[in-house]
Amino acid sequence: MTRRKAIVPAIVVLGALSLSIGCGKGASAGTPTGPQAFPVKVITAQAQMVPQYTDYLATLKSRTASALQPQVEGDIVKIFVTSGQRVAAGAPILEIDPRKQEATVNNQEATYKSKQAVMQQYAVDLERKKKLAAAGVISQADLDQAQNAYDAAKADAEALHASIREQQAQLRYYTVRAPVDGMIGDVPVRVGDHVTNQSMLTTLDHGGPLEAYVYVPAEKAKAAHAGMTVDIVDDEGKPMLRTKVFFISPQVDTDSQTLLLKTQVPNGELKFRNAQQVHARVVWSERKAPVIPIIAVTRLSGKLFAFVAEGQGQQAVAKQRVIQVGDLVGNDYVVLDGIQPGDKVIITNVQILADGMPVIPQS
């Protein structure tokens, strides 16, 4: 019992000693005088020429594509090509049954031989009557009658001969041939189909440059001018090629209230096809404005903000600015207000920064 009472005062003394030692250490260490500066990466806002543009859907059309239609009527008996096949000028595309036309030519040729025989008979009669008239055996009227009979038979034979040549020329149209080198389009007809000169057989695209048909709203008519820039862009908005407007329609389409613009689209590598729809970016004007990366912009309560490092080295602080932006150019915003060229825009850790927070800018 006596020994337990002696231990309790000793524990109290040790606890008090430990507390005094701890308090002494805390006083000597001191406390930080302010927040530590935070390292951030910055870029210098640069003024660039940025376009004011609108994107539209445009249709590409070929000036060298032709629609093949027959010049004769009949049933298709052979098709020599397939869609997408490249053919040379003069290559056969398809054949229309020529047998009816061949029969017509054969009948006319037989008739022509008969008329030649009649003409020859009149020619012999005319020669005989010329001799009789010279001998005074027949009158001049009889000679004239023989001459007229021969002339009529000759004219009849010559007319038929001309008709035969025409019908023979028609025979070559029963084989439809490629007028130029090119690529065969869709072939909607089949063997056995009956076609007329109104039937569409296929299309033939010679290749080469295309024209982009861009329809812009009528209210843009005043801003449109020849030579203005049009960029053909891909589905992600990346420019594929730049071209210029060379034609502006003199009138607005009354139904759609749109104005037609045309641009030349080079197609040496055959990247584009006739009747293809593409994205056309019509550039109305260009002006200088600062641009900043998307990662430098934050959104809060419907407003956009960016941080700018003000000051130098350890004395720099992050200042939050409300900004207004325009279109995206690649991965950058065009800044309309809030950022000036030369500002040091912070592009890292913007989500954890606060206005007035000390920062260490790093390029």
Provide structural commentary.
- The protein has 3 helices and 21 strands.
- Strand 18 and strand 19 form a beta hairpin.
- The chain has 3 domains: 38-48 and 288-362, conserved putative lor/sdh protein from methanococcus maripaludis s2 fold; 54-64 and 206-287, Efflux pump adaptor protein, beta barrel domain (Elongation Factor Tu (Ef-tu), domain 3), CATH 2.40.30.170; 65-184.
- The protein has helices spanning 2-29, 99-134, 140-171; strands at 38-44, 46-62, 65-68, 74-79, 86-87, 92-96, 175-177, 182-184, 194-195, 202-205, 210-217, 229-233, 239-248, 258-265, 277-293, 298-300, 303-310, 317-329, 332-337, 344-346, 357-362.
- With 363 residues, the protein is α+β, with helices and mostly antiparallel strands.
- The chain is rod-shaped.
- 26% of the residues lie in helices and 39% in strands.
Record the SSE blueprint.
Elements: H1 2-29, E1 38-44, E2 46-62, E3 65-68, E4 74-79, E5 86-87, E6 92-96, H2 99-134, H3 140-171, E7 175-177, E8 182-184, E9 194-195, E10 202-205, E11 210-217, E12 229-233, E13 239-248, E14 258-265, E15 277-293, E16 298-300, E17 303-310, E18 317-329, E19 332-337, E20 344-346, E21 357-362
Parallel strand pairs: 1-21
Antiparallel strand pairs: 1-20, 2-11, 2-15, 3-10, 4-6, 4-9, 5-8, 6-7, 8-10, 11-14, 12-13, 12-15, 13-14, 15-19, 16-17, 17-18, 18-19, 18-21
Helix pairs in contact: 2-3
Briefly characterize the structure.
With 363 residues, the protein is an alpha+beta fold. 26% of the residues lie in helices and 39% in strands. The strands form three sheets. It has a six-stranded antiparallel beta barrel.
